[in-house]
Amino acid sequence: MRRSPRPPAESGAGRSPDRPAPPPLLVRTGTDLTEVARVEKVMSTQPGLRERVFTPRELDYCYRRGHPGEHLAGRWAAKEAVLKSLGTGMGPRMEWTDIEVVNERGGRPQVRLYGEVAAVARSLGMDHIDVSLSHSGGLAVAYAAMVCLPPAPDTTDTAPAHTMHTTEGDDRYEA
User: Which of 6, 21, 79, 129 makes a 20 to 30 Å CA pair with 42?
Assistant: First the structure.
């Protein structure tokens, strides 16, 4: 009988003991729950708001569906979830259309960021962002997960900073 193969090498095998492991990736999340009827009402009573919140591509997609209100509410929730993952809410110089929810060929939603929202995401080290949408029972929910790369090491300071990540998603540096 053949012996089982050796287990894979432990993480960090072959790394110099003098060189610390790279800092972990930071995942920032946001979620939002939106009432479909509220979005439908706002869109019908304030038609100018539609173009301030949704891009032409988003509107075209939603109004080609059987229940456009559900899709609009899902995108509204996704934009809110993305802003929560940034930790900013709707900040200065940000526009709702700086966040665009589009669908891949297979239907999976993805987010495109523009303008000030993209600038804030870059400043946080965003590598990519995933979003998940769902709607049922008159509600739409969205969840955003933004993966941020660790900051580049500061070569001017020889003492490494130790980072703690709290459940609120903020970073606190200790000397």
Answer: 129
Q: Which residue has the tokens 């979620």?
A: 31
pTM of the model: 0.74
CB 151 within 8 A of CB 174: no
pLDDT tens digits, one per residue of 87-131: 988 888 999 999 999 999 899 999 999 999 999 999 999 999 999
Note the pLDDT tens digit of each residue in 48-82.
999 999 999 999 999 999 999 999 999 999 999 99
